[in-house]
Design brief:
The chain is an alpha+beta fold. It has helices at 17-20, 23-32, 68-82, 102-106, 123-135, 169-176, 179-191, and strands spanning 6-13, 39-46, 53-60, 90-94, 109-117, 143-150, 158-166, 192-200. The chain starts with 5 loop residues before the first strand and ends in a 5-residue tail after the last strand.
């Protein structure tokens, strides 16, 4: 599993310093210029419906491992993030398929669904349900691409993350009204306890 490509998703509940200081951009630059091995791409964006929550996405070609050579940089990044958040950052590592989920983040809007899977759900069967629910998006006008994966560092619960690139939220809403969407969404909802759904407009600057 240590060699599995993953996307690190960091959720930051921001305070005023997020907008009044350059700490976040400084943290991003520290990571870009660091000696961490395996970084492929970095994206970030605020939740469209909740602009006080910033999402940071880092594609790694393997699960990130700390080392003595990166300890100082890690401490600097944590210091800058701690100055701009109201609560500790939430970190997830997701093994997306396909990887990397570049098409999803290249879209004008990226829909992100984070769900907690019911303990009794058969993951083999549920994986087929997820595949089908995203497969029907592909031919729909305005869909840029999809990806999904399980959180590989979950503690005690199974979480799954789906990402879909959209031309606009309106195209997404139009899709949800189609019969294929309705037919494939119901089995998905049966397999999960709860879901958080939001859009970001991802950028990599």
């Amino acid at each position: 599993m240590s060699n599995t490509p993953v996307t690190e998703i960091i959720t930051l509940t921001s305070n005023d310093a997020m907008k009044t200081t350059s700490y976040f951009q400084e943290a991003v630059e520290l990571l870009r210029q660091s000696t961490f091995e395996g970084i492929q791409r970095i994206y970030w964006g605020d939740r469209v419906q909740q602009p006080g929550i910033r999402q940071w996405f880092i594609d790694w070609d393997r699960r990130p491992q700390g080392s003595e050579s990166t300890a100082a940089t890690t401490a600097q990044i944590k210091e800058k993030l701690n100055a701009i958040v109201d609560s500790p950052p939430k970190r997830r590592l997701v093994a997306f398929n396909p990887f990397p989920p570049t098409k999803c983040f290249a879209a004008p809007f990226t829909e992100i669904i984070i769900s907690t899977v019911k303990p009794e759900t058969d993951l083999n069967e549920f994986s087929k349900v997820v595949d089908l629910s995203l497969e029907v998006c592909h031919p729909f006008e305005g869909c840029y691409g999809t990806a999904w994966g399980y959180v590989v560092d979950a503690e005690g619960v199974n979480e799954v993350v789906l990402v879909v690139g959209w031309e606009s939220p309106e195209r997404h809403v139009a899709f949800t009204k189609t019969e294929p969407a309705k037919k494939t969404t119901a089995p998905y909802l049966e397999g999960v306890e709860s879901s958080t759904v939001f859009y970001v407009q991802a950028q990599n600057t």
